[in-house]
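thought: fold this chain, then report.
action: predict
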Amino acid sequence: MTDANLEGANFRGTRFSNVRFIRSNLSNADLSNAFFRSSDLTGADLENANLSNISSLFFCSISDIYSSSEDEAQSDIDDCVAELVGFRISSEWCEYDLELRSIVANWLDEDLDYLCGNVEGEYEALLTFFYPSYSQQYFPALSLRGANLQGADLSDANLTGVDLSYAVLTNKNARSATYDYATLSNAELPALSTANFDDAWKSTEEMFEWYAENQANAKEESRKSTSRVFADSMSRAQQAYYLENSEFATDVASLGLGISSDHLYELGISQDSRNDITVQYALSQHDDLPSSIGVVRLIETEYGELFTEAVICESDTTLSIAVADLPRVEIVADEVICPTGWLIKN
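observation:
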């Protein structure tokens, strides 16, 4: 519906998915309680429109994230939002100093000088370059980039992840509107006493700073989860090995994973392993990395059928552990019990 004249239209409660209202006239339209997923209203005229209680549902909806703790939930949300940053593309990226440009280049693993020199910052060309699998019709969140929102009613609107760059936000009512992870770069923001922009990006620099911190945290988390990945990979390989050979492998090389001990981790299969249980370990050789143990055991059903179960235990402290100090995993009441100071990470 690009350039459509929809002045005063009634879209109350409508669910929009993958729609384009680019530069459309939606002034005085009723969009209250509407849902937007992957929709593009770039440059739309929404003057005096009713946008109360609208919701922006981007591709990794926060409402769909369930975690066992508040910290894990926030981490999941941040990881999800990091995927959104790539769609906040504009010619400004090619104008920033080398530090900011290096962040983009490292993230994309591409030569940004080549990119900026060849596509001249064109929005659609950039989008195609960065995310060729997505068409211009697909946006991971609602885009109100450059939209005219003068006098619009945004009360109780959920604008999480919305692109409001260059938008004119002179709202008659923005009470209780949510702007978490919204982009407000170069937006006209008059004094809105009821608006809370604390968790929004008020400039592209802020967005990059947030992204850089997110990536640094993700890199550190990835580094600290390496032992768990090793233990899990060996355990899964043991399950496959048993399925094929009716016994467990006694050395890592037999698992065919192509991994071996290095200066960071000592990898191996415990000599305490038995016919019905095997213990794989990835023991930290550095004091700032945790260790992990992978346990695979045979379970026999009441019908005499055998299947395997895998459990990962990770040390709750970061310290170097020698193979001789590998703690013993116990089976109590038909349940794997991690050693004291180790936590189940399945």
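thought: worth noting. Helices lie at 70-85, 98-108, 112-119, 123-130, 204-224, 226-245.
final: tokens above.
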